[in-house]
Write a structure and sequence with these properties.
Blueprint (H helix, E strand, L loop, with lengths): L1 H22 L5 H5 L1 H20 L2 H6 L5 H13 L6 H26 L1
Helix pairs in contact: 1-3, 1-6, 3-5
């Protein structure tokens, strides 16, 4: 089970890092002008949420500071509400929430090594 959690965390971290790389040097307006960027970010956040879904309940309780519920909720919203996506929320999530999530995931994975 621990290995499964580690694999999921690595998937999450990979998606977070990629989203941050894609947005480096970009502005919110770039999402309006670059459909490929907005679709890539949506997909990466879906991956984060889907991987979070696969993390065991016990592990989530051990790391309660990680916003598991919000990540899973975001994934569900992106998947099921694709027709009504708010690019402002997408951008805020990437630039405001993902840097801290990256730090949390890196710290947890380091502790698992």
């Amino acid at each position: 089970m621990l290995q499964d959690n580690e694999v999921r965390l690595r998937h999450m971290l990979d998606a977070v890092v990629e989203a941050l790389e894609f947005t480096a040097g970009k502005k919110r307006e770039d999402l309006d002008e670059n459909r490929m960027l907005s679709l890539a970010l949506v997909r990466l956040l879906e991956i984060v949420g889907e991987a979070a879904t696969g993390v065991s309940d016990e592990f989530r309780k051990m790391h309660s500071g990680v916003p598991w519920k919000q990540m899973i909720g975001m994934r569900n919203r992106l998947i099921h509400g694709y027709f009504d996506m708010d690019l402002d929320i997408l951008w805020q999530t990437v630039v405001s929430d993902l840097p801290a999530l990256r730090e949390q995931l890196e710290a947890i994975l380091e502790g698992m090594a």
